[in-house]
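Hello Y.,

Per our agreement to keep a running log of every chain we model this quarter, I'm adding this entry. I've kept the format consistent with earlier entries: sequence first, then predicted structure.
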Amino acid sequence: MTSRRRFTALVLAGSRGAADPVAQAAGVPHKALAVVGGQPMLLRVVDALRASPAIDRIVLAVQDQAIVDAVPALAAAVTRGEIAVMPTQASPALTVEAAMRSLPDAFPLLVTTSDHALLTPEIVGSFVAGVTPDADVAVGLATRTAILNAYPGSVRTFIRLGGEGYSGCNLFAFLSPEGAQAVVFWVRMERYRKTPWKIAASIGLWPLLRYALGRLDLGGAFRELSRLVGARGVPVVLPQPEAAIDVDKPSDLAQVEEILSRRR
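Predicted structure for the entry above:
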């Protein structure tokens, strides 16, 4: 488990505006405002973070102040100084990089997204507890087995490593300034997104070959990533499969609504 220092939580609430398919399906101007379980997704995420003893302060990264103003509870918290707001940049990675540069005492920094509608204090607690003391950066994951056992109809993207599939959980922790190297790498990969050969060249032939042959397990993958990034990265496999179910498309919105209805 990492130190008992409390985290700054950065919530990425960028959006493609009304053109976003989730925003269109929900009839709202921004994806973050889509209502599930009777609340806008962004408010659900903030409430989960505020209820977690691991979180010291919350910063919302939004492209438009109107997103905050549309949720009275959030607007009031911002006015009282309980929540801070910063502008998003051209990409998620650049937004995280800007937060690291501009926020005083930014580390340790926990990053999540406004569409993490099933986030709970328990998920946050499991993630923080799973971060090892020697880590510079940590990534939350859930296994294919756990997700499909709990939600057989869930459509997720899985990366297969060592006989198991893993899906990201939109939870990242940057524990030290060295962890910023991971963001620098992330920014570079975003820049190369239209030139896949540059991404492959950055990763290297041997790791790609091991992955293609099914010989790269989770620990090996993170060792390779740590080497590439220049900072120690660790995976945190979460016991809650819901941690991997974010809202990227209208069908996700329906699934999250169904899951929340069972909790009532």
